[in-house]
Amino acid sequence: MTTVHVIGAAGYAGAQLAALVDAHPHFTLGQVTARADAGKRIADVAPEYRIDAVLQEFDLDGVAAGDFAAVCYPHAEAAAVVSELVDRGVRVVDVSADHRLTDPAAYPQWYGFEHPRPDLLAEAVYGLPEINRQAIGSARIVANPGCYPTASLLALLPMKGRITDIVIDAKSGVSGAGKTPSPDVHYCSVADSVRAYKVLNHRHTPEIAQQMGADAVFTPHLVPVDRGLLASAYARFTGDAPTQAELTKAYVDFYDGHPFVEVVESPPGMHAVQHNNFAQVCPMVDQASGRLIAFGVIDNLMKGAAGQAVQNLNLMAGRPETEGLL
Amino acid sequence: MTTVHVIGAAGYAGAQLAALVDAHPHFTLGQVTARADAGKRIADVAPEYRIDAVLQEFDLDGVAAGDFAAVCYPHAEAAAVVSELVDRGVRVVDVSADHRLTDPAAYPQWYGFEHPRPDLLAEAVYGLPEINRQAIGSARIVANPGCYPTASLLALLPMKGRITDIVIDAKSGVSGAGKTPSPDVHYCSVADSVRAYKVLNHRHTPEIAQQMGADAVFTPHLVPVDRGLLASAYARFTGDAPTQAELTKAYVDFYDGHPFVEVVESPPGMHAVQHNNFAQVCPMVDQASGRLIAFGVIDNLMKGAAGQAVQNLNLMAGRPETEGLL
Amino acid sequence: MTTVHVIGAAGYAGAQLAALVDAHPHFTLGQVTARADAGKRIADVAPEYRIDAVLQEFDLDGVAAGDFAAVCYPHAEAAAVVSELVDRGVRVVDVSADHRLTDPAAYPQWYGFEHPRPDLLAEAVYGLPEINRQAIGSARIVANPGCYPTASLLALLPMKGRITDIVIDAKSGVSGAGKTPSPDVHYCSVADSVRAYKVLNHRHTPEIAQQMGADAVFTPHLVPVDRGLLASAYARFTGDAPTQAELTKAYVDFYDGHPFVEVVESPPGMHAVQHNNFAQVCPMVDQASGRLIAFGVIDNLMKGAAGQAVQNLNLMAGRPETEGLL
Amino acid sequence: MTTVHVIGAAGYAGAQLAALVDAHPHFTLGQVTARADAGKRIADVAPEYRIDAVLQEFDLDGVAAGDFAAVCYPHAEAAAVVSELVDRGVRVVDVSADHRLTDPAAYPQWYGFEHPRPDLLAEAVYGLPEINRQAIGSARIVANPGCYPTASLLALLPMKGRITDIVIDAKSGVSGAGKTPSPDVHYCSVADSVRAYKVLNHRHTPEIAQQMGADAVFTPHLVPVDRGLLASAYARFTGDAPTQAELTKAYVDFYDGHPFVEVVESPPGMHAVQHNNFAQVCPMVDQASGRLIAFGVIDNLMKGAAGQAVQNLNLMAGRPETEGLL
Q1: Minimal Cα–Cα distance from C47 to chain A, Å?
Q2: Would residue C147 show up in a list of annotated catalytic residues for this protein?
């Protein structure tokens, strides 16, 4: 059994992650920490998971070399803890954004803070197993992808290098906005409506561009859904457009051997991926305009956060990629 | 034209009320006030109403004898303003709970404050036009009923004095909980769920009992709906149960001449009353158990708050009861 | 491994049941049947379950003595199949209503058909494990309870014999209405509304009365929720009302050793029981009126149908009660 | 007073239109017709509108030259009725798609039928008042725009001729799919999900292209909303991108004098346009990529159907454009 500490378990992603670790046949919960909620039973914060443990304050002295940790702090706050943990010999999945961008200069620009450890930034592996499985397996730090990038990249990566003029119109459930009450997540604001937000300046934009090796217009929308994230992506083929059969085959081949990505023929809704770690992608070709239209859908808390973190932990620990996730 | 001041217009009920007054053919908006939001345009706080005015701080010197006012402050904060306004010669609809209960001792017990003006409490008319139309017409202070009491009372009043063992199971949309963000009104808390709250101690309980002249078990539930409130009421006939035809006739007769109450034959949903001032009531008799089952449904912000306030203002101003409401 | 046939797997409950059997460590899927949808892959009918099998027409010759079956046909259609299966030596959980009422005369009255096998009716065990665990273990036919009775009975049974004047106000998610399209389940009919239906004549009424040994007023409501069912139950204690502590203890004791019932202190919402087989019950006492107010909440497709069926199959097969359900 | 016949009033758009005509100060309801629902009271089909009339079968002999009519039949069925009405001297708003495309060859291709009256197709005016106010005023036939084209065109038209590579990602509420029950509009299918449909082949595609004078990739999505339609549009400026100030000014100027289009600064949600005839558009410029991102939001039954039809009827009848719509 391997000990996994969950640092920051009071939010939606952290609690889901603690639940997955708790139920995992090979992992055992170490510290399950919170800041404002320290001292509460997890079952009071997230009763649906029935985890029998108390949220504690993070105690660096209570971790041991060889342990694993997943850090679910907000961006700008995770970096310091990750740094401490790694220096102790703990292998870490950083669920925050603090190790996703390789360029240190991107942090002041997009996240408003100077990154404290550019060396770890350089070392961190981007934790999308469908492209980095090998490197994740031996990484000390895995940067767990953002929810929007996960859905968008899974929809587009098989055509990486063959497309340009990328436009991503994404629709996210409200749990993606986090648990903190605000006017924007009030039921009466969200229900019966859809709206775009952070147009042209959402922080997942450079993360997508970095992985695609190409700029993308990225526009997130909030939809009246609890969990679920759909990315509808549009791009122009730089060369001749493939036939639909060629396109489908390229996707099927690309995801061959990747257990959590399903290539589907009809535009996917959210129900088949909610509460599990699957992604569904659906590529379509518009011969008339020479365009790709590709859909990617995930549960933003599972494949978009906690599930993917466990997938990464499995790879890091040499366990089957799907363990504890099916 | 009569000037109507709307005191406390930043919340859901206050903004709806300002919109109704703004569009009313006989009323003209006087002061439209807020505290935290003073200085903002109403259109920024409640864009759906397109009211061209700025929220100001309440200015007692800006009101004149003969004006009307509707006070939408929270309970315990409305009483002082109402008192000041009435002393100036302004006739007031108090949309808060501060003048609904006739017994001053009920305020410390249920609302946690000593009522500052028991004399006004004694004078205030309970603003349910279906039973107090005449008195409302000449009142200085009208206590606008609570949303739950409105739906419950309309469902039960035609049988007042003939029933006992009253149980009211009510379901309210989230706007009834107000605009302030909290974990309880977070979209992810409310969506896909129904739950009871404040069991046995909701503040509308004594208000219902006072009007029915009988105790009632009252259990409110929060439902994933924006606007709308359904009260399902159960009671035992003290004498012989009427036939269904007799029961229906009693309700039709009771509401004859009351333009906003519709007696319907099937249990009503919320769609026919949303965004308007109608109530629908549906009485049914269970001959086997000698019970009344009666449903009452309203829009909690209209017949349950702002719409009813305008209905009361119409009566106070000698205008047609439905003016500005159809 | 024990073979379990799922007869009628195209609907919501049947597909959920097939998924639970498919993932069960001790059960293996036998025939998975449908009528209109025979020939389709289950994954096309219910993609969220990822069951790799084809819906077939029911083939009596393909079942063997010693097999188990769960029948999810509509009422009036299940009885004949159950009869055939039992005569073959198959032990059956009837998820339909066709073996729930012990009095044959209740079937023409409530369900509109003459029961073909009163002998099997007499033999069938009511499949609520919390009261019939032993008998279920050796039964040939288990009548799986209705969704409303499950939530209502779990909320009330600990006080059976001590209460009267029972009123149950229940709120069900839309999956309880089944998969067949109709105006009543159109999104635009259901969303933003709550309404009662089948007042005084819902077929779960006699089932509740039979188990409680007392009549109950039962009023179901449709709420804008996918899965989830809340029963809010009100009753009068025939003797002195217990204290809250006594009441809670009585419930805790009653459900001691029953792994799927959680006695909770606050009125439960639906989130903690969705997609699992747990029920939460919350009993409260109103000393003023001498009344019990008790809430019971379940997932109508799990503890209210398919999950409870697997719980029953576990008991019948001598397996741990929670196997395949946690 | 002018008589307006509403042909096909049993659906969502038709009933809304009948309600608007019924409440209009200058129009009076003529025939209000239905086919399957003929003989029913409108209040039974659409109780929220409280229209006191009976749905009748269409009677050509009951219309008179000089009357107006709005036809809300499904496409391919409206053309014949429109033809009969116009030949009688009735001026018609065709709410169906049957007169929107100017090229007769588009009808077999996109709608699957041969258009019976290419002469009327040539004569019909596209009923988007913001570009065709004058022509609508004197038209015999006005082709009421589709809901998706209305939101998309209002978002893009001010840049017509200056943009290329148009991608429209649209999100529609379920009432846009019509009232007929089907698996796709079952509450349990729609709730908690978003999905694209009719990718690359939705019938509103050529309508948008025709008005923009440019091809567009158009992808509609179904969202868990009753009423409301958001078009998020992306395009590349063919010349230099304007500044944000220039862009905003161009939109404000374009819609100057058009009472139902509001140019807003933040991406609009649906609440401010639901149940009214307003559209909100929000243009933004992405200097980095030289792109326009523009949002248009409407109520699909109001500005997207019935409200716009009344706006057109007002213009045809020489009434103020906003009459009966504010």
Answers
A1: 6
A2: yes
The answer to whether the CB atoms of C195 and B268 lie below 8 A apart is: yes
- Name the residue among C196, C224, C232 with its Cβ closest to that of B224: C224
- Model confidence pLDDT, tens digit, residues B87-141: 999 999 999 999 999 999 999 999 999 999 999 999 999 999 999 999 999 999 9
Residue A260's pLDDT is 98
**How many whole angstroms separate alpha carbon A149 and alpha carbon A130?**
13
- Cα B168 to Cα B260, C286, C297: the distances in Å are 22, 14, 19
pLDDT in tens, D27-70: 999 999 999 999 999 999 999 999 999 999 999 999 999 999 99
Residue B39 CB burial class (10 angstroms; 0-12, 13-18, ≥19) = exposed
Q: Which of A72, A147, A188, A282 is catalytic?
A: A147
Yes or no: say if C167 and C235 are a contact pair by the CB < 8 Å rule: yes
Distance CA A124, CA B319 (A): 73
Percent of chain A with pLDDT over 90: 100
**Structure pTM?**
0.98
- Among B262, B157, B278, CA closest to B210: B157
Shortest distance between the Cα of B188 and any Cα of chain A, in A, equals 6
Nearest CA to D321 among D236, D259, D247, D253?
D259
What is the phi/psi pair of residue D119, to 5°?
Answer: -65, -40
B interface residues, C as partner, C-beta within 8 Å: 165, 167, 169, 171, 189, 192-197, 199-200, 215, 217, 219, 221, 223-228, 230, 232, 234, 236, 267-271, 274, 284, 286, 288-289, 291, 293, 295
**Chain C adjacent subunits, 3+ CB pairs under 8 A:** A, B, D
Who among A47, A191, A275 is closest to C275 (CB)? A275
Residue A264: how many CB atoms within 10 A of its CB? Answer: 16
Question: What's the whole-number mean pLDDT along residues D314-319?
Answer: 98
- Residue B220 is classified by DSSP as E
Is the separation of the CB atoms in C93 and C86 below 8 Å?
no
| Element holding D251 (H helix, E strand) | helix D244-254
Confidence label for B11 from pLDDT (cuts 50, 70 and 90): very high
CB C309 within 8 A of CB C144: yes
Q: The tokens of D65 are what?
A: 């030259």
Q: Enter the tokens of residue A124.
A: 């961190």
**Chain A partners within 8 Å of B192 (Cβ):** 226
C92: left (phi over 0), alpha (psi -120 to 50) or beta: beta
Give how far D217 is from chain A: nearest CA, Å. Answer: 8
Of D207, D208, D222, D225, nearest in space to D275 by CA: D225
Q: What is the ipTM of this complex?
A: 0.97
| The CATH fold of domain D2-145+304-316 | Rossmann fold (3.40.50)
| Domain map (residue ranges) of chain D | 2-145+304-316, 148-300
Q: What is the CATH number of domain B148-300?
A: 3.30.360.10
Q: Spell out, as residue ranges, where chain C has pLDDT lower than 50.
A: none
